[in-house]
């Protein structure tokens, strides 16, 4: 279950292909005179990290959080606000961003995990909107207009700097790989088994003596932290944070990326983010009414491609 | 909670329910129910549909809280104890409607139960698929319940009777002293039922068992004592022969001289 299968599997081959594309883009894109794609792919990878984090609780844990983008905002604003006050060291910014994301996830999780189903979805949405409105009302930090991140996180070394586009890109790439690796380890550990079992049959887990709440809460916090890291990377990449980062629509898009790529598959969310963002990019290039095409496409995927792209490719493999 | 009973009295009573009451709105599912199960016996609870048998299992296992009354397990008051804590105390249940992890393999189902028994699961790194302390006991147990050659099959793909066996294997893996079995034969054909009877007979003595069952053949083949439940009330408790001949039971439940009526009801 959920482990890396052999490379013969088309889903895994697709994964490998996407990884290779990610890995060589900073070298290849300028050579092809398409440097623009370095930024595009960096963005995709940041969303990929966020989607991987959501997949931990949604795909493996069955917890449909409709407020997950809030942690993007929290990670991003922590960096933005600290930079605003002149604190630019990554060694202060990043642990703080992680800490605040984790703390918010702990509080939000502790509240929302007492509910189930639709109520869980609504409460995660409501709590996230609370932070959204907080950022809108924060005049000092730009309200609606957002906040320019005055300086990128300073890693304090001379040979590697986020001001360098390639360094920034590979930093994000490294975090993406790390997030998938951590998911892989978690999902197959005792902890992950407990989370997956609770998704499969919560009452049964209770009746063999495991109180599921604290495991779910822990997963919720881990996912919040992982998404907070995506947020701090996004702030550095864009040089800008705004309430829009944690708008409920962003949370919806995250859910969609996970579903599109394949829930409870390790790399599915990354492929989902890749296809989702590339497609919206391409469609938006054709027509300003691109949502008219994009919307029905998403509906069709949900109806006909259960298990998302990963599911589609795996099924093809089974047939062969 | 402070209800102390002299140890020599409780020694042979594994489970004792006193005056349990549970109502759902206007429906009284459990009505002043008292019951005691001696250590090592198979104690069957029978009753027509709607007699409150599953409610009783839910109360005893801690999935429901009684409105009134108390439950003692091995001399300890567990009335307020949540379900997971009761499992840790040695009280394990199975479900009438098969409750397994359908996406897990057979082995993974039992491994998870073994894992639950070993303590907390805040272990984030080591893969369970290479954890001999989970795999070995799970394999051994699956061999014992006759699923030794089915370990790598997804649980949802097992035959129905096998799923019922797995259901009990999951309960056994928590190393209980007491099994609450909620209609283990539910939905089984005669052959599967017969195999399950043999299986339960093999467990006898090693575990104290409270057996909720519709299948009268099974009940009379296995039970040391029988409690008859009608509309949430106990109308009789005794040895199988006494129950068979109890006029109140015959009238209220067995319905004349043909007990087969009841087992047919069980398939519904």
Q: Main traits of this protein?
A:
heterodimer, A: mainly alpha, ABC transporter involved in vitamin B12 uptake, BtuC, two-stranded antiparallel ribbon, globular, B: alpha/beta, 6-stranded mixed beta sheet, 4-stranded antiparallel beta sheet, disordered N terminus, disordered C terminus
Explain what you see.
- The complex is a heterodimer of chains A (320) and B (268).
- With 320 residues, chain A is mainly alpha-helical.
- Chain A has a single domain (10-319), classed as ABC transporter involved in vitamin B12 uptake, BtuC.
- Chain A has 13 helices and two strands.
- Chain A has helices at residues 10-31, 36-58, 70-84, 90-112, 117-137, 165-188, 190-200, 202-207, 213-238, 248-261, 268-286, 291-304, 308-319; strands at 147-148, 240-241.
- In chain A, helix 2 (36-58) crosses helix 10 (248-261) and helix 2 crosses helix 11 (268-286).
- Chain A is globular and about 55 Å long.
- Chain B is an alpha/beta fold and 268 residues long.
- Chain B has a domain at 102-174.
- Chain B has helices spanning 7-10, 53-61, 83-88, 106-117, 132-144, 160-172, 190-203, 216-222, 240-245, 247-254, 260-267; strands at 13-24, 27-38, 42-46, 68-73, 76-77, 91-94, 178-182, 208-212, 225-230, 233-238.
- In chain B, the strands form two sheets. Chain B has a six-stranded mixed sheet with strand order 6-7-8-3-9-10, sandwiched between helices.
- Chain B is globular and about 55 Å long.
- Classes of the chains: A mainly alpha (320), B alpha/beta (268).
- Chains A and B meet through helix 6, helix 7 and helix 8 of A and helix 3 and helix 4 of B.
